[in-house]
């Protein structure tokens, strides 16, 4: 069973290898288009097999039966499949037929072009399947493009290699577990990162989509959703992921996209994620120039939706090519037309116009919309006066591949009470750096969503701005006006610098220490004058005492017990995962529960604990639960697969098997737990080899010292460069020659013999090590097949939760150590007073005068 992670890795590696110098933003259309055609062909064959009652097992037999049936029943067969799917792929145009042609050496690119064109003619004219129309238009898949190859032969070879990339994937089976959709979405994201600025046309970074989707999904009853700048459809699909299965099934998707190739990509993406054709309405058009969708019965009202999400082009210039006026019903609410040089508010107002009364809208825009003046200032004022702006979320800069500017998510609602304040969240400092991009972690997303849902005020992070505050700021919504940043720098105290001591006010600011270990903290210092104290012991010693404090130990044990109970509960759930298990719901449940456990403890980083569990899912559980669902827990634990490695380069590049690896349990875990003695023996040999190498290196260095005993005996046995200068290793051949010449029993012979002994011993140990490593590898690979249930239980506990208890307990220590570090900084800062510095200067001056008197001028 191939997992989604393995498919993602294989397809992306293949894409990188095959596209050569072709731009990623262009190559994606070919790769994703052909991948989708494979899905359509597989779907056609599956439908033929089911409706015709064919019993064959192999795909080649099924294709043969399909060809025979077509010859016998002709259009009747095609209509039967068309009635089920709304389309069909004729036998001669199947993806599988291309593969047969490739294997027989009869492949031609024209056959692919003919197949794609023929598919268009097989689509039913009913509205339910209109989303298949034009998917493979020449503007999207131009097989004559010289970027695919400068001549027909090169283009043929490149297309053939791309076709072979999907040859062994059963797209229908993969779609059922949403593996295919995940892989497709992953490839879109990877192409976006490779495409740089061009990616803005079709992709919203996953972490930004998550914030928007979770807020929308958790704050509205969604039956319909609309994205006016739909791109690849990732925002729509992310919202879908956060809805229950029942709501997903009934959800109606609407979207519009200006770029034709991206519009086709959207439809493919939704179809591969299991969205039924009749549930999607995607249009190829300019959202701003012509309002869509429209309600024919109410032309001035527009169709309204339960949720609107969008990531429009930022500050689009010349957006008003259609010459729209304020009288356009979309802009009437604002009383002003957005400037032609910046289309940000035009997109916002379009989305707001289509937002239902009880719905939620989330839009990503550049930071400037919060404070720019002129007509934009008027529009912002009108929106705030009408109380449509619900929340403003400031995000870090450099999140997007197509721009480094900071952006904001604006949440809008039409059903807010007049007195409701606007929530402002400053998440601009919540990120980690991954390569060149800034990235929101799972804990950052969870914190934003929690603060939004709870309408919380957090110092330095969020604020509820009243109408009076907003008016006082002249409707300028720049976040720093409302959310004051927390200065982590401890202010300097002049009196403490002059006379020493740590200000008592700084000690009082150590809230965690004051709350958890107040007595211990107070006993470790003495007041030297009113308002100032000195430490009675070093901070390192105080740290040890605090970590051993009864209260801290009791708190640690309590968290340890609760984490152990939590792990055991979900370990049982994870072992019982099946194809029917809602993995997304299980993930959400685990993340929410760890958060609830930690919320009971003051001064613990709740979101740090959330991230620990999120990392377990990201690094292991998403992959492992797929295997368990398909194979069963213990069967998956005893399953192994070929360890494929890439060898050679260029035309000789190939994949070869090197042994086996556990499908679920990594080989190194098995070795560590079940072959500890063998591992210890191997490590001892490595240490001995390292010791011998050190001895030899020391002898080489000693031999380079002129007139030393080692130099006299060993210098001629050392390897030399072309200039005759000694290198850093002995030459075995030269060593033997020197031994022949050395006088028996001489100091020279003893040193040479010593080197020979070390070299021979190292060679012997290295040979033994290599043999024993191979034996251990073989033993581990065989042991996978005979693991007992108890062994699998222990190994999987270590893999998933081996360090989790220590990490959760460490959250207590982290907050304590942070403040203890502040205490150390304070002690060091005020350790030298002005009097101390004056004394040091006086001492140095006296020493200088003394030296000056000793100077003699001749």
Largest sheet, described in full? 9 strands, mixed
Q: How many individual helices?
A: 34
The first-level CATH class of one domain is given as Mainly Alpha
**Strands ordered across the widest β-sheet:** 3-2-1-4-5-7-6-8-11
Q: How many β-strand runs? A: 18
- Integer-rounded radius of gyration: 35 Å
Strand content: 5-15%
Shape: globular
What is the average of the pLDDT values? Answer: 89
CATH architecture of one domain: Up-down Bundle
CATH level 3 topology of one domain: Ferritin
Structural class: alpha/beta
Distance between the termini: 93 Å
CATH superfamily of one domain: N6 adenine-specific DNA methyltransferase, N-terminal domain
Give the low-confidence spans.
Answer: none
Fold and architecture overview:
The protein has 858 residues and is α/β, with parallel strands linked by helices. Among the domains are: 1-199, Ferritin; 489-631 and 803-858, no CATH class; 676-784, no CATH class. The chain has 34 helices and 18 strands. The strands form five sheets. A nine-stranded mixed beta sheet has the order 3-2-1-4-5-7-6-8-11, sandwiched between helices. Strands 12-14-13 form a three-stranded antiparallel beta sheet. A two-stranded antiparallel sheet has the order 9-10. Strand 4 (305-310), helix 14 and strand 5 form a beta-alpha-beta unit. The longest helix is centred in the C-terminal third of the chain and has 37 residues, at 747-783. The chain starts with a helix and ends with a helix. The model has no long low-confidence stretch (mean pLDDT 89). InterPro entries: D12N6_MeTrfase_N, DNA_Adenine_Mtase, DNA_methylase_A-5, DNA_methylase_N6_adenine_CS, Restrct_endonuc_T1M, SAM-dependent_MTases_sf, T1MK-like_N_sf. Belongs to the N(4)/N(6)-methyltransferase family. Residues 675-702 form a coiled coil. Keywords: Coiled coil, Methyltransferase, Restriction system, S-adenosyl-L-methionine, Transferase.
């Amino acid at each position: 069973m191939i997992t989604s992670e393995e498919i993602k890795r294989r397809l992306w590696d293949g894409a990188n290898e095959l596209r050569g110098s072709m731009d990623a933003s262009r190559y994606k259309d070919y790769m994703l288009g052909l991948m989708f055609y494979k899905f359509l062909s597989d779907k056609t064959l599956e439908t033929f097999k089911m409706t015709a009652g064919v019993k064959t097992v192999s795909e080649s037999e099924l294709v043969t039966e399909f060809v025979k049936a077509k010859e016998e029943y002709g259009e009747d067969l095609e209509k039967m499949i068309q009635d089920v799917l709304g389309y069909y792929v004729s036998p001669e145009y199947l993806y599988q037929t291309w593969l047969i042609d490739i294997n027989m050496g009869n492949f031609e690119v024209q056959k692919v072009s003919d197949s794609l064109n023929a598919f268009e003619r097989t689509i039913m004219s009913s509205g339910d399947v209109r989303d298949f129309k034009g998917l493979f238009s020449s503007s999207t898949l131009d097989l004559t493009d010289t970027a695919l190859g400068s001549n027909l032969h090169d283009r043929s070879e490149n297309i053939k290699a791309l076709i072979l990339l999907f040859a062994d994937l059963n797209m229908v089976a993969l779609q059922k577990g949403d593996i295919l959709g995940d892989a497709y979405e992953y490839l879109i994201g990877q192409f976006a990162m490779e495409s740089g600025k061009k990616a803005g046309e079709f992709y919203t970074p996953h972490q930004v989509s998550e914030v928007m989707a979770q807020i929308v999904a958790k704050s509205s009853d969604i039956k319909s959703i609309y994205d006016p700048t739909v791109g690849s459809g990732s925002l729509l699909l992310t919202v879908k992921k956060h809805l229950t299965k029942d709501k997903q099934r009934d959800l109606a998707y609407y979207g519009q996209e200006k770029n034709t190739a991206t519009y086709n990509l959207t439809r493919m993406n939704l179809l591969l994620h299991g969205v039924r054709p009749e549930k999607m309405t995607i249009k190829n058009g300019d959202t701003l120039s012509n309002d869509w969708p429209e309600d024919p019965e109410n032309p001035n009202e527009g169709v309204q939706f339960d949720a609107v999400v969008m990531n429009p082009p930022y500050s689009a210039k010349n957006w008003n090519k259609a010459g729209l006026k304020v009288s356009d019903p979309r802009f009437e609410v604002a009383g002003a037309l957005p400037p032609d040089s910046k289309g940000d508010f035009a997109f916002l107002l379009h989305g707001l116009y289509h937002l239902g009364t009880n719905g939620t809208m989330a839009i990503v825009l550049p930071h400037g919309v919060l404070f720019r003046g002129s007509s934009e200032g008027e529009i912002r004022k009108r929106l705030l006066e009408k109380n449509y702006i619900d929340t403003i979320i400031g995000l870090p800069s450099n999140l997007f591949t197509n721009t480094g500017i900071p952006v904001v998510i604006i949440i809008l609602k039409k059903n807010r009470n007049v007195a409701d304040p606007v929530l402002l969240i400053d998440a601009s400092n919540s990120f980690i750096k991954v390569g060149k991009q800034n990235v929101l972690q799972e804990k950052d997303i969870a914190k934003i969503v929690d603060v939004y849902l709870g309408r919380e005020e957090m110092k330095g992070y969020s604020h509820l701005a009243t109408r009076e505050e907003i008016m006082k700021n002249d409707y300028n919504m720049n976040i720093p006006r409302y959310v004051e940043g927390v200065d982590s720098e401890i202010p300097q105290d002049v009196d403490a610098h002059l006379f020493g001591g740590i200000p008592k006010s700084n000690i009082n600011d150590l809230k965690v220490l004051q709350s958890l270990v107040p007595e211990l903290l107070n006993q470790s210092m003495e007041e030297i004058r009113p308002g100032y104290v000195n430490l009675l012991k070093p901070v390192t010693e105080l740290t040890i005492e605090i970590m051993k404090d009864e209260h801290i130990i009791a708190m640690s044990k309590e968290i340890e017990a609760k984490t152990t109970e939590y792990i055991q509960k979900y370990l049982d759930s994870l072992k019982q995962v099946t194809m029917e298990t809602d993995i997304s719901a299980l993930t959400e449940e685990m993340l929410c529960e760890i958060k609830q456990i930690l919320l009971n403890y003051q001064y613990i980083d709740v979101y740090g604990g959330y991230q620990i569990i999120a990392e377990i899912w990201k690094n292991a559980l998403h992959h492992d639960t797929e295997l368990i669902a398909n194979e069963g827990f213990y069967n998956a634990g005893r399953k192994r697969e070929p360890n494929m490695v890439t060898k050679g380069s260029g035309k000789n590049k190939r994949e070869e098997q090197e042994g086996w690896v556990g499908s679920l349990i990594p080989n190194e875990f098995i070795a560590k737990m079940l072959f500890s003695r063998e591992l210890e023996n191997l490590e001892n040999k490595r240490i001995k080899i390292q010791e011998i190498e050190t001895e030899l290196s020391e002898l080489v260095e000693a031999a380079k010292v002129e007139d030393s005993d080692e130099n006299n005996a060993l210098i001629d046995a050392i390897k030399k460069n072309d200039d005759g200068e000694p290198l850093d290793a002995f030459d075995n051949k030269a060593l033997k020659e020197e031994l022949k010449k050395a006088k028996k029993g001489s100091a020279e012979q003893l040193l040479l013999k010593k080197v020979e002994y070390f070299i021979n011993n190292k060679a012997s140990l290295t040979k033994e090590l290599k043999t024993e490593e191979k034996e251990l590898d073989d033993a581990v690979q065989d042991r996978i097949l005979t693991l007992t249930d108890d062994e699998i239980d222990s190994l999987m506990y270590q893999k998933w939760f081996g360090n989790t208890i220590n990490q959760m307990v460490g959250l207590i220590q982290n907050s304590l150590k942070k403040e203890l570090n502040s205490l150390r900084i304070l002690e060091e800062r005020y350790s030298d007073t002005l009097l101390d510095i004056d004394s040091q200067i006086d001492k140095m001056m006296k020493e200088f005068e003394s030296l000056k008197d000793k100077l003699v001028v001749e």
